[in-house]
Amino acid sequence: MLSLEGVSAAYGGFQALFGVSLEVRAGESVAVIGPNGAGKTTLLRLISKLIDPTGGKIQFDDQLLNRVPPHAVVSRGIAHVPENRRLFPRLTIEENLRMGAFTSRKTFDAKRDLVFGLFPRLKERRGQLAGTLSGGEQQMCAIGRALMSGPKLLLLDEPSAGLAPVVVQSIFELVRKICSEGYTVLIVEQNIRQVLKVVERAYLLEAGKIVLSGRAQELLNSKDIQKAYLGL
Amino acid sequence: MDVFDIFLLEAVLNGLLLGGLLALLSLGLNLIFGVIDVVWICYAELIMCGMYAVYYLHVQYHWPLYAAMPAAILIVAVLGMILHQFVIKPVLAAEPINQLLVTGGVLFFLQAAATLAFGIDFKNLGVSLPAVRIGEMSFSAARLIAFGAAAAGVIGLFVFLNKTYLGTAIRAISQDRAIMPLMGVSPARVYTLTSALGGALAGLGACLLVLQYDVHPAIGLSFGPITFLICVLGGLGSMAGGLIAAFVFAQFISVGGFFFAIEWGYVIAFAFFIAMMFIRPQGLFRR
Q1: Interface residue A125 vs chain B (CB under 8 A)
Q2: Considering just the CA atoms, what is the radius of gyration of chain A in Å?
Q3: Which positions in chain A touch B175 (Cβ < 8 Å)?
Q4: Do B171 and A74 count as a contact with CB atoms less than 8 A apart?
Q5: pLDDT (tens digit, 9 = 90+) per residue, A191-220?
Q6: What's the CATH code, domain B3-279?
Q7: DSSP string, A104-132
Q8: Of A14, A202, B90, B263, which is least packed with CB atoms within 10 Å of its CB?
Q9: Cβ contact (<8 Å) for A102 and B182?
Q10: 3-class secondary structure, B216
Q11: Domain locations along chain B
């Protein structure tokens, strides 16, 4: 479904990604893990075309994305939940969802019911301004907003960042739920132990290069990862 | 009722009518600032262009007013888009003072261009609307129409911004521009649309003003500053603040003018503005 071949990117004058190749197949849940500053966020911004690659090929559904403008990516079937959620704070929950459905207005009612079914809390507070929600609720709203476009591929950028430890647990439960609903998910995370328990496969990104990849369980048991990232 | 009371009531009601018009004028300026973060200092000069459009289409080309006015609104909407495309867009990332100077330049450009094209004489639509008498009070029909149309414009814009996808996008873009593409929205297109909308509001204002006032190249100066001050008083970019400030300001002018002379109304209103800038420099409402 999504494939990156030898993709490079520069960000603010310095090169952030060096010839990254990865693949996400339909129905799969895949994580890109790695330390802070490895280029994980850049990778997602590249796929949703907020930045242009300096080399390589980005393909989605057998079509080249390299020259697609950023606002045309959603209607191709890619929805991106950005880092720090980035809700519109002075719009209500329902209005935030409306923005998510900007390119697919006809299915708004059906998609909204689906999102409210997934996150009943949002339904209770649909008229509340997004800026007044708790961190966990904001993350639900941000994921819900992305689901409103009926995406084939969901990109999640650090869904657990900046949340209280108790809430982190429930967010990973939500991610697990979304993966099991059949969505294709590409998630980047620093919370390596948690995310590897949720996804099927993962890539390890270090200093802009993919250094390891495999099934999530294998990575969780790998000596290198245990030593460098899990503190075992 | 006392004659004094009747005339005071008349002044209050006239202030209300004036407030409606000022509210409409401030709305366009606030919309542009709230969304694009640029002040169109030349806003009143766009209105002047719209007044000339109505005048020429109606008087010179004999279009009926119901055709000339929508055409003028369309013309000013297009002017708003042109202003954005060729003047605002290149300075979007520049310092606020540069943006201010650039639109200030457009103000004098439009004034001078209008002088060259249309001459300095005052032009009158030649439409005289009767006064409407209610009991012992009399109101100008042009002002009543202006109030009704301004109210319709304000309500229409409010519904558009709150009930439609594009309207919601216009409100959203001022909160987080960078992620708009993730919603499938092109920020450049929203800016162009907002500029057209701001222009259309100026065009509507022009239609209502040309019913009451003669048009000449410097007419922008007689209500441009007051529109800007109302926006600042309400809190630049806050539409609700602008609406309230417009009605407050209009009452100062109308009732102040009733107790003293009409010029005193303006003196009191501006003194109030200056005092408010000391007390609440951020405006009544903060965006």
Answers
A1: no
A2: 17
A3: 88-91
A4: no
A5: 888 899 999 999 999 999 999 999 999 988
A6: 1.10.3470
A7: -GGGHHHHHHHHHHH-HHHHHTTTSBGGG
A8: A14
A9: no
A10: coil
A11: 3-279
Identify all chain B residues contacting A95, using CB atoms and an 8 Å cutoff.
Answer: 168, 171-172
Residue A223's pLDDT is 82
State the ipTM, two decimals: 0.92
For residues B268 and A11, the model is more confident at: B268
Q: For residue B97, what is the enclosing H or E element?
A: helix B96-118
Cα–Cα distance between A77 and A152 in angstroms, integer?
Answer: 5
Pair of tokens at residue A43 = 């990778």
What does the alpha-carbon distance between residue A155 and residue A99 come to, in Å, rounded to a whole number?
A: 17
**Rounded Cα–Cα distance for residues A70 and A191 (Å):** 28
State phi, psi for A15 to the nearest 5 degrees: -75, 130
Contact A192, A225 (CB under 8 A): yes
CA separation for the pair A190, A45 (Å, rounded): 17
Size of interface A-B (CB pairs under 8 A): 62
Q: How many residues does chain B have?
A: 287
Q: How confident is the prediction for chain A on average, in pLDDT?
A: 91
Work out the minimum CA distance from B201 to partner chain A, whole angstroms. Answer: 24
Do the bridges between strand A29-33 and strand A201-206 make them parallel or antiparallel, or are there none, so unpaired?
Answer: parallel
